[in-house]
């Protein structure tokens, strides 16, 4: 699939990590069968690895891919950090700032002597000289303070499930943060993860997959995503999804998916027939998106993914 995306002109391929394969190993495999397409982590979490280990993984993949890495970082949430990784959820915004500072120093080939509030490193330096003096770092952030910080310290923003209104508000926060460090927004990537599925034969089937995907995040992944959806104008829907999802066993899963309305899908996704998706893609571009990242809904079969790639192949020349 990534080889075909490269042939079609897509800008980059992204892989995340939650409880399946890790991002760096998977992208290393992809690097071996591609030559041009950039490779992004979406996301590697700042609680599951030390910053020194993250720098080692990033430097390794950058060499393997001949300088194609985009390092996407994020905090994840308390449920994942505490329950899955056994780490203490503490000062995520401050941790992200210090983490990025350390990783940038290491990837520049510098000796890292760092005295922070959360991290203290002495004498760390990558054994092998990094391929590039710097690697683009993008940050997945949701809260206003975190988004503003992203504009100050990162090269790009990685929001998820964004409406046009969310992006417009985010741009203002990013610009404020960028002003703190003398950055300009023209050099900044706005790269949202957008649920995407194109089907002219069965657009409703594609939309139903997206409903289930949104329901899983809103109902099953803590409160962050429910709050995100509520803030975008769907508080009653978010509450209903969470209520249905919380029912014992899996009894409420179908009802939770059904509670994801067409209005929610139209506001936050690129799902439906080709004409609908291309029109919405233009609306995102008008809202300041520089690099839309397609996120395929859970359960997407090969035919649906292929149709989506082919349908948006022409749009890839505008960077997807």
Layout of secondary structure:
Blueprint: H1 2-8, E1 12-15, H2 23-31, E2 38-41, E3 44-45, H3 51-64, E4 69-74, H4 78-84, H5 92-107, E5 112-115, E6 120-124, E7 137-140, H6 144-153, E8 156-157, H7 164-180, E9 189-190, E10 193-198, H8 203-220, H9 224-231, H10 235-245, H11 253-258, H12 262-268, E11 270-272, H13 274-286, E12 293-295, H14 302-312
Parallel strand pairs: 1-2, 2-4, 3-4, 4-7, 7-8, 8-9, 10-11, 10-12
Antiparallel strand pairs: 5-6
Helix pairs in contact: 2-3, 3-5, 5-6, 6-7, 8-10, 9-10
List the keywords.
single chain; 320 residues; alpha/beta; TIM Barrel; 7-stranded parallel beta sheet; 3-stranded parallel beta sheet; 14 helices; 14% strand; globular
Please characterize this protein's 3D structure.
The structure is a single chain. This protein is of the alpha/beta class and 320 residues long. The mean pLDDT is 94. Strands 1, 2, 3, 4, 7, 8 and 9 form a seven-stranded parallel sheet that branches. It has a three-stranded parallel sheet with strand order 11-10-12, with helices on both faces. The chain has a two-stranded antiparallel sheet with strand order 5-6. It has 14 helices and twelve strands. It has a single domain (2-199, 271-318), classed as Luciferase-like domain (TIM Barrel), CATH 3.20.20.30.
* Run of helices and strands: HEHEEHEHHEEEHEHEEHHHHHEHEH
Q: End-to-end span in angstroms?
A: 15 Å
Give the tally of structural domains.
1
Outline the low-pLDDT stretches.
none
Shape: globular
Largest sheet: 7 strands, parallel
Task: Please report the total strand number as a whole number.
Answer: 12
CATH topology: TIM Barrel
Query: In percent, how much strand structure appears in the residues?
Result: 5-15%
CATH homologous superfamily placement: Luciferase-like domain
Question: In angstroms, what is the radius of gyration?
Answer: 19 Å
Top-tier CATH class? Alpha Beta
Helix/strand-derived class? alpha/beta
Helical amount = 40-55%
Helix tally? 14
Oligomer: single chain
């Amino acid at each position: 699939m990534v080889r075909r995306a490269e042939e079609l002109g897509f800008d980059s391929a992204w892989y995340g990590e939650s409880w399946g394969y890790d991002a760096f190993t998977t992208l290393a495999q992809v690097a071996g069968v591609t030559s041009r397409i950039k490779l992004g982590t979406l996301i590697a979490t700042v609680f599951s690895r030390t910053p020194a280990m993250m720098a080692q993984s990033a430097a390794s993949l950058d060499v393997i891919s001949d300088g194609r890495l985009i390092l996407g970082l994020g905090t994840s949430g308390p449920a994942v950090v505490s329950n899955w990784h056994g780490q203490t959820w503490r000062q995520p915004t401050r941790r992200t700032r210090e983490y990025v500072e350390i990783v940038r120093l290491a990837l520049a080939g510098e000796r890292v002597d760092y005295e922070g509030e959360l991290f203290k490193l002495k004498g760390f330096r990558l054994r092998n000289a990094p391929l590039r003096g710097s690697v683009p770092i993008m940050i997945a952030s949701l809260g206003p303070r975190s988004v503003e910080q992203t504009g100050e310290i990162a090269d790009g923003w990685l929001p998820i499930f964004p409406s046009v209104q969310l992006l417009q508000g985010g741009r203002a926060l990013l610009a404020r943060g960028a002003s703190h460090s003398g950055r300009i927004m023209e050099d900044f990537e706005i790269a949202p993860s957008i649920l995407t599925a194109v089907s002219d034969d069965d657009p409703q089937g594609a939309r139903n997959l997206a409903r289930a995907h949104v329901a899983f995040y809103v109902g099953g992944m803590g409160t962050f995503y429910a709050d995100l959806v509520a803030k975008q104008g769907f508080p009653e829907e978010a509450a209903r999804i969470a209520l249905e999802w919380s029912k014992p066993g899996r009894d409420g899963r179908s009802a939770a998916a059904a509670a994801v309305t067409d209005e929610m899908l139209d506001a936050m996704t690129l799902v439906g027939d080709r004409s609908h998706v291309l029109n919405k893609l233009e609306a995102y571009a008008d809202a300041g998106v520089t690099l839309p990242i397609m996120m395929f809904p859970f359960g997407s079969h090969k035919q649906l993914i292929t149709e989506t790639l082919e349908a948006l192949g022409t749009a890839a020349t505008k960077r997807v």
